[in-house]
Structures are given as C-alpha cells and as structure tokens.
Design brief:
about 525 residues
C-alpha cells in the first residue's frame, strides 16, 4: 500500500492530479482490519502532507476495526494540522467517553493548542463546547474535572471554585482540591475566591484535615484583602484587629500563632497607628527560643519593615542583614537582601542599591528576581549620564513617604520633579505613583486622567499596559462606567497581547459582555 502511495505521489508531482487521486483511493480501498497497516498507510500520507487522505485512512480504519481502536488521538492531530479545532475537540471528547483515564493526556495536548491561540478563537470554542458538555451530562465528572483544569489555566478562580466544591462533594474528597485552589487564588491576588474556598473548608467541620489551617488562613487572607484595598475603613480594620486577637488566643498551633501575630503587628503599625505595640509583639517572638529560625526570621522581616516605617533606618537595615546572613541561599534571605537594597534606594544610595539588585536578578524566587529587575531598571533608566540624581532622588523620597503613609507629602515631592524638569524619562513613573496615591484617596477621576496620560503619551513605556489595566478596572469598579471599562480591557488585549494583564482583562471583558459561565 505504501508503494501505491509512492506511485500516486509521483503522479501528483508530474501534474497528473486525477491519476494521483485514483491511486490514493485505491490504496485506501485495499486496507484490511490491521491496526499496524492502517497506521503505516496514514503515516505515508502524512509524510507527503496529504492530510485529507490520512484522515480517510483513519476513518476507514475505525470502521474496519469496528471501533476497537478508534484512532482518536491520530485524527485529532490531523485536525490540529488542518486548523479544524472543533473536530479536534470532538475526537478528544470521544476518547474521553471511551476511557476517562485519557483525561491528563488530553489536557496536556490541549494546553499547547490553547496556549498557541493569538486570536483566542480556540479558547472560545473550547469554553463553549466544555460548558455544554458539563451542563448536559453533569453525572460525568470528567467534564467537571476538565472545566476545573481549564478555569485554573485561565485564572478564572470563581468558576474553578464552583467546580472544585462540586467535585469535592461528588467524589467525597477531603477538601484538598479546594485548599490547593485557595493557595493558587492568593498567589494571583484573587482574595475573594480564596476566602470563599476557606469558608467552605471550615464549614466541612473539625474532622477534616484542612479545618484548623483553613480557619487561620481565612483570617490571614481577609487581612491581605483588606490591607491591599486603597482605603480600608477604620471600623473594618478595628474589627479585624479584634478577630486576630481572639484567634491568637484560641490557636494552639505555634506556627499559625506566630503568623497571625505577625499580621496583627502589621495591621497595628501600618493602619492603626499602634507602632509601639506592634514592635513589642514582634520583639517577643524574635526573643523566643521555642520556635524555629525560619519562623523567627519572618517576624524579624516584619519588625524591620515597621522600623523602616517609623524612620528607624539603622535598626531596619540591621535586621534585614541578620536574616540575609542566616539564609543566604534561601528565598527568605534573598527577600531580606531585596528589602535592604530597597532601603538603600529609598535613602538615595543608588549605585549601592543597584549593585545588590543586579545580583538578585538571579534569585531563586521569581517574585524577588522580578522585583529586583524592576527596581534596577528604574534606577538605571533614570540615573542621568552626568550623575545627576535630582529627579530619581525626589522620586525615591516620594516612594518612601508613600510607604510611610504620608501620602500628601509624597504628592508634593512628586510635584517637585515637574517643577524642576519640563520633561524627564521618569515622568511615566511619576504619573503612575500619583495615580496610585489618588486612588487610595478615592480621587478616581484625577487618577484616571493621569493613567490616560501614560497610555496616550507613553504607549511604548513599560508601564503602559499596567496603566491601561488599572484604568479599565477603575472605570468598571470605582467610576461605575462599564462601557469604558470594557473598551479599555479590549484595547489592552489588542495593543499588548503579551501583557501579564491579558488573562484578567479577558475574564473581565467576558463578564461585562454578559458571557455565561466565564
């Protein structure tokens, strides 16, 4: 049969298309119910880029073998090549119906296809197809499994949580899937989904393995969500403080108790003005001998942050250095080194700061490496060739003032840059910093104008996609202008397709458009 394919290909190369077709069809007619023969003939066509005939071979083979081997993966590959993604999905789902153990293999293949989708058409088709399947056949849990997998891939934690809870109940799991999702949601700053996940785990009861940790993590996540809000109310902060105090008094787990105390200290110092009490709480932890060094170092980092907040730079840098020396080749040590480098940047020691940041670019922690790269780039791009550090000095001072919650002083310092310079490369950062402070103060219209300036006048700047995303989210959530928010999300996806903000923009755009399920 492969000889016939060779003859047909020769005829095709000579321009005798009709003869080639006849020979190709003859080779398919002569097929026998032999899986190896079928595979070899299909491969002979694939090698010659005759995908149409390879498809015919597989379909004929499916009939000859009476579906005992359906060639589903092989046909899916053919349809991937020919751009017929709907048929690809049909083959994958047929294989899943045949044997649910294929689920992981199918997900691995789809991950490549869906990741290579510049116009998002494959993702849209897959999303609709999968939703239909899971809704029409809810008893088949592998569709829910795949929907859970896909929603996590898309970072749609709201939908992922729905599927995770459903699977946890139907498969009588111990909550592990939901707990895993909560951790992922926090790392993606999806605090609302994480909170709902922890509430579900707590509601399962004390007999489940994630109960105690979920209870404390629920409080810690509410803390993170609240302090990341631009302007949390004093009432909410005070109520949260009381919840921390109650939980700490009830918590027997030493590790959880230290973490809760660390967060309470941060709340007291940075938001409630109780600096001395916060320093006292953390100092007691640092002096304890019954906790391990890593846990003690986490408390030291928080204590150093509070010392920096209260203008005790010497104590801050001393503690940062201690943690680094204790964990030189560890993520916590690298985090301490970054904080110490940023302290140097705050006080105008730019060359020293940059030399340390350049080392940290190779950090084992992706977060620390990215932060180091970002700050190093800020310094190098705005450190003038003639060693003039006036603009950068003003900016770093404003950055420190904002860190210390002295927002009005920070705004005045940023305005000084515009008074000294008619134009400067640091202006996009200046506008971003001012917009961030104005958002904290609830002055959204003024912030929107500044973000619009970045998008319009500095479209090629590294901050442009972030500015456009913040503008979209602010118009949607704070200015209550859904149409503008939707337009800005769409603009970001179009202008900056490689941006880290694209997945969230796509999700928000779909939601505003009224898509069901996502």
């Amino acid at each position: 049969l492969k000889y016939l394919v060779d003859q047909g290909y020769i005829a095709f190369r000579k321009g005798d298309t009709e003869k080639a077709k006849k020979i190709y069809e003859e080779s398919i007619r002569k097929l026998e119910p032999n899986q190896q023969q079928i595979a070899e003939l299909a491969n002979a066509f694939i090698i010659r880029n005759e995908n149409e005939y390879a498809e015919k071979v597989y379909l004929k083979g499916r009939q000859l073998l009476n579906n005992s081997y359906p060639f589903g993966f092989e046909l899916a590959m053919i349809y991937e090549r020919t751009g017929e993604f709907k048929k690809t999905l049909e083959e994958y789902f047929n294989m899943l119906e045949l044997n649910k153990s294929y689920l992981t293999t199918i997900e691995d293949r789809l991950q490549f296809d869906l990741g290579n989708d510049p116009d998002n058409s494959k993702n849209e088709l897959f999303r609709k197809y999968l939703l239909e399947k899971s809704q029409k056949e809810p008893d088949k849990t592998y569709y829910s499994e795949m929907l859970w997998w896909y929603s996590v891939q898309q970072k749609d934690f709201e939908l992922a949580l729905i599927q995770a809870r459903s699977l946890d109940r139907r498969l009588r799991e111990d909550g592990g899937r939901v707990f895993q999702l909560a951790k992922m949601a926090i790392s993606n700053q999806e605090y609302a989904s994480a909170i709902e996940a922890y509430k579900y785990l707590v509601s399962k009861g004390k007999e489940y393995p994630f109960y105690d940790e979920s209870r404390t993590e629920l409080l810690n996540t509410r803390f993170i969500q609240m302090v990341s809000h631009p302007n949390p109310s004093q009432k909410s902060l005070t109520e949260l403080e009381k919840e921390f105090e109650t939980e700490i008094s009830l918590t027997e787990n030493r590790v959880q108790s230290v973490i809760l105390t660390k967060n309470l200290a941060h709340l007291d110092a940075f938001f409630l003005g109780k600096n001395e009490g916060a320093i006292g709480m953390l100092s007691k932890i640092v002096e304890r001998n019954d906790i391990d060094l890593r846990l003690k170092s986490q408390a030291k980092l928080e204590l150093a942050d509070i010392y920096l907040f209260t203008d005790n730079v010497w104590e801050a840098t001393l503690l940062y250095q201690q943690v680094y020396m204790d964990f030189k080749n560890d993520e916590i040590g690298e985090a301490a080194k970054f904080k110490n480098s940023k302290l140097s940047y705050y006080i105008g020691e730019f060359k020293w700061a940059q030399s340390q940041l350049d080392i940290l670019k190779a950090s084992t922690s992706k977060l620390t490496a990215n932060d180091a790269m970002s700050l190093s780039l800020l310094i190098s791009e705005h450190f003038d060739a003639d060693s003039n550090t006036i603009a950068l000095g003003y900016y770093s001072r404003a950055d420190l003032l904002e860190y210390r919650n002295r927002d009005e002083d920070a705004l005045k310092t940023l305005d000084s840059i515009a008074q000294v310079f008619k134009d400067h490369s640091i202006f996009p950062h200046l506008y971003m910093a001012k917009a961030r402070i104005l958002m904290k103060e609830g002055k959204f219209q003024e912030a929107d104008t500044l973000l619009g300036t970045i998008v319009k006048s500095y479209a090629d700047d590294i901050l442009a996609d972030q500015a456009l995303f913040l503008r979209a989210r602010m118009n949607e959530q704070d200015l209550k202008d859904a149409s503008k928010g939707m337009a800005y999300y769409e603009s970001l996806m179009s202008k900056y397709p490689g941006s880290i903000y694209v997945p969230e923009s796509r999700k928000r755009f779909r939601s505003l458009r009224g898509d069901k399920g996502f």
